[in-house]
Design a protein that fits this description.
255 residues; alpha+beta; five-stranded antiparallel beta sheet
């Protein structure tokens, strides 16, 4: 099994309302050994290499780590000192669980930000503009996953490439590009292989933020590509979106 490199942009994931208090999980998971230090270059894009052995190497701002760990969009995190999104950190960690699932990894990252950065925050919910992901009248064109297994992502500028994902994950990936929550209302079940290409419009998150050449420089917009290539479409609406307000965060001490 090869290592997984997570995309250089935060996924948009909603923190469920209710349940355990912020920062708690039913069974708290944590890395066995963690090293945190300032990154050698202050590249603020998030990268995360998850190896089959359970070893994780990441470079990210604290704000990006919070967003990943607590499954919330970057723009819905507020408060905290100015350095939380202006300083990149190098994370090297090992886990006694191998390979790590996405949910286990997120739980361990949330423990890391609490233990090493002393993060505390409160949740707020507010009504915002969202997109609903729906199947077109002509029907979905998604390809059933060729092989079972955990989700695999291979993204780029104007491209979402994924293997063995459900439409919920696709909705979150789309939200990461559009800067707005996307709610999966397709009603589709199962796992799919996705290769979606488009030309980013000005202001889309991957327009200049993801390294590399455009996958399709003369292609359609993301909205049109969804309909033509996957048989899905986005419909504007309103819905509750969770915001995290950072009340405390500290730079980590020496390892």
């Amino acid at each position: 099994m090869s290592a997984r490199t997570w995309p250089l942009f935060p996924l948009v994931l909603l923190v469920p309302l209710g349940g355990a208090p912020f920062g708690q999980t039913p069974a708290k998971l944590a890395f066995e050994v963690v090293t945190v230090r300032p990154a050698e270059t202050n590249d603020l894009r998030m990268s995360m290499d998850v190896q089959p052995s359970g070893r994780v190497i990441a470079s990210a701002t604290l704000k990006a780590l919070i967003g990943f760990g607590y499954e919330v969009q970057d723009r819905n995190i507020s408060g905290g000192p100015g350095w939380i999104d202006a300083t990149a950190w190098r994370i090297e960690a090992t886990s006694n669980i191998a390979p790590l699932s996405e949910s286990q990894l997120r739980a361990m990252v949330s423990s890391l930000v609490e233990d090493r950065f002393h993060v505390s925050a409160r949740r707020e919910s507010r009504e915002e503009s969202i997109y609903e992901l729906l199947v077109t009248k002509e029907g979905a064109k998604l390809k059933t996953a060729a092989a079972p297994g955990p989700p695999r992502l291979s993204n780029g500028r104007g491209r979402i490439g994924a293997r063995s994902i459900d439409t919920g994950i696709l909705a979150k990936m789309l939200a990461g590009r559009l800067g707005r929550a996307v709610i999966d209302k397709t009603g589709l079940t199962g796992k799919f292989d996705v290769d979606l290409t488009w030309t980013p419009a000005p202001g889309e998150r991957d327009d200049g933020e993801i390294a590399g050449q455009l996958a399709n420089p003369d292609g359609p917009t993301l909205f049109t590509a969804l309909q033509e290539q996957l048989g899905l479409h986005l419909q504007s609406g309103k819905g509750p979106v969770t915001t995290l307000v950072i009340e405390r965060a500290e730079k980590p001490g020496a390892n």
